Amino acid sequence: MLRNRSLHFYGKILRPSKTNPSTINTMMFSRNTLLAAAAAFYGASSVSAFAPSTAVGNTVSRSSPAIYTQQTASRQYSSTKLNMSSSVDLKGKVAFIAGVADSSGYGWAISKALADAGATIIVGTWPPVLKIFQMGLKKGSFDDDSTLSDGSKMVIEKVYPLDAVFDSPDDVPDEIKNNKRYSGLDGYTIEEVAKAVEADYGKIDILVHSLANGPEVTKPLLETSRKGYLAASSASAYSAVSLLQKFGPIMNEGGNMLSLTYIASEKVIPGYGGGMSSAKAQLESDTRVLAYEAGRKWGVRVNTISAGPLKSRAASAIGKEPGQKTFIEYAIDYSKANAPLAQDLYNDDVGNSGMFLCSPLARTITGVTLYVDNGLHAMGMAIDSESMSDRNQ
Ligand SMILES: NC(=O)c1ccc[n+]([C@@H]2O[C@H](COP(=O)([O-])OP(=O)(O)OC[C@H]3O[C@@H](n4cnc5c(N)ncnc54)[C@H](O)[C@@H]3O)[C@@H](O)[C@H]2O)c1
After folding, report:
1. 262 C-beta closer than 6 A to ligand 1
2. CB 236 within 8 A of CB 213
3. Theoretical Cys-Cys bridge with 325: which of 2, 283, 308, 329, CB 3.0 to 4.6 Å?
């Protein structure tokens, strides 16, 4: 059945739902501020088979000459009929969302939208923030942000510790094993988590990569070390490749993977440094190559959403110059001043678009970067620029 959330796709009313008015606020700024701000951004640390649903109308144009030219000897015409419905029903589908540790970010919103459509939600959480997230869940700290369209609360069935910079146990260095933030935990490498998920659920249908980390994000690329650059790439781009390598074999045909990228991959966003722009460019290129490889190998789709700025926890934690706004605050304000749609962007907007890409409605969409950013990506001029002030009057 079509829930309210899903209607957003059809209604063309990308009206934000309620989450986080504070996120409402979220790119060319004063360099120092941006450098600081970008840190927060990421550096803060750091469908079973989506078989087509039911019948659709009689839109088959059997007499179309175009169709006739495509006839084969064995079939008189290729049917253009796809059994469809206007609803999204993900009941019976299992979604693993990597990179959820609170309710402010995109991973949470995508989880919620998928849960709203009926999917079973399991998440992977970075060990250093695992306890605080589990405590928050237990205490009901995220209840207000968990409400689904039918009034019920999203249930996260299981939280797996996951450190996406490690592929298998051999990769974990002693300094991590002995780190108190990892004490008492094991099985958090990507390979181990995939095995644990397989043991618990058998196969999954939806894999979401909603994580990034760039230890030197505050540094311009010209000042970024090899170590920092490769760390950003490892945590923010290769992690997606590795996740699909390990989870692909346990994904049902028709399933899909979704990741989150940012416009800094293709346009210069001063302040988004440390190789994070490079990592996002990798992520987008890898989306296309993985779409081809995973499509042919497992029948799995691979897409990424280029999301507009959101004051997520990671983003908010970024430093700032005294008396100035943070990177993310500048980014939100810039977007509102210059994007084609001067409206707030909520994490639920990306949640809804993510749910669409993960649903059978998008069964032929793969290898795309979908902009969910109020159209900011399309602009080539800042309309609030001082040099435009005469024209704007
Ligand atoms: N916030 C924005 O404005 C914005 C814009 C475009 C794209 N994105 C992307 O959205 C995704 C989610 O970010 P968000 O802003 O919603 O913030 P978020 O804080 O909700 O998500 C980032 C998550 O990554 C996790 N993480 C960091 N290193 C990890 C590791 N090694 N292993 C496992 N998890 C790790 C963090 O614990 C955190 O939960 C990221 O890929 C980010 O680049 C964000």
Report:
1. yes
2. yes
3. 329
- pLDDT of 33 strictly over 50: no
Catalytic member of 262, 330, 334, 346 = 262
Q: Is the CB of 46 under 6 A from ligand 1?
A: yes
Which residue has its alpha carbon closest to ligand 1 atom 19?
A: 314
Distance between CA atoms of residues 69 and 72, nearest Å:
9
Q: Length of the chain, please?
A: 393
Separation CA 386–CA 393 (nearest Å): 12
Share of the chain above pLDDT 70, in %: 77
Distance 139 CA to ligand 1 centre (A): 23
3-state secondary structure of 80: coil
**Which residue's CA is minimally distant from atom 38 of ligand 1?**
99
Helix (H) or strand (E) holding 303: strand 301-307
Q: Do the beta carbons of residue 179 and residue 9 sit within 8 Å?
A: no
**CA of 92 relative to ligand 1 center, distance in Å:** 27
Annotated catalytic residue 292: no
Could you report the per-residue pLDDT of 99-121, keeping only the tens digit for each?
999 999 999 999 999 999 999 99
The whole-angstrom separation of Cα 294 and Cα 301 is 7
The CATH architecture assigned to 84-378 reads 3-Layer(aba) Sandwich (3.40)
Q: Where are the domains of the chain?
A: 22-82, 84-378
Q: What is the pLDDT of residue 314?
A: 79
User: Is 229 labeled as catalytic in the residue annotation?
Assistant: no
Query: What is the pLDDT of the chain when averaged over all its residues?
Result: 83
Ligand 1 contact, 309 CB (< 6 A): yes
